[in-house]
Amino acid sequence: xxxxxxxxxxxxxxxxxxxxxxxxxxxxxxxxxxxxxxxxxxxxxxxxxxxxxxxxxxxxxxxxxxxxxxxxxxxxxxxxxxxxxxxxxxxxxxxxxxxxxxxxxxxxxxxxxxxxxxxxxxxxxxxxxxxxxxxxxxxxxxxxxxxxxxxxxxxxxxxxxxxxxxxxxxxxxxxxxxxxxxxxxxxxxxxxxxxxxxxxxxxxxxxxxxxxxxxxxxxxxxxxxxxxxxxxx
Length: 233
Hints:
- This protein has helices spanning 17-21, 28-33, 68-76, 98-106, 121-125, 181-205, 211-219, and strands spanning 6-8, 46-47, 53-62, 81-94, 111-118, 131-136, 147-149, 153-155, 158-160, 165-169, 172-176.
- The mean pLDDT is 96.
- The chain contains seven helices and eleven strands.
- It is α/β, with parallel strands linked by helices.
- Strands 1, 2, 3, 4, 5, 6, 7, 10 and 11 form a nine-stranded mixed beta sheet that branches. A two-stranded antiparallel ribbon has the order 8-9.
């Protein structure tokens, strides 16, 4: 008999490691720009330290404040996976802390993203292991279930599939499907080259090419006056 809402799918398809590692030095802002600026997870997810996040998504969906299946994920995820937890953004009960993260490190997991709360914030902030969460709470988790492992999850307006690529830095977290990796890597190189040229222009010439902006104002018929004189006209 099917147990709806309480299932574990053991196998996921992962992109080969070397193709994922190509993104380790690419800022999430650049990747996001190559995805029509629509690919970031909610800004409520904050990094606890400066460690770069990158790997294959091992997805976990839990009820608010319950971490039963997060234990399963840490014990069964493969080296290089990023455990990403849809915890409904609930901020008043921690889903994990130093003990679980320490186990994840030993299991060679690449990071933990919790759309919910963590605890032991000070200890986690000192680790060379990426952890993102919405908040910190001293309240510990329940262990009642249910939930799902390695099914699609939703965090904010993003749907993350098992095996999706996860990249995170201090700016935020980006997710994308493995089939998009080759295109995004090539597109990101072009954006980086363009931005490097822009920075060079600023540093050397104290200027930036802004003809596009003035053309946009002209097309929009933006009214430009010498000085604000008050009143309605």
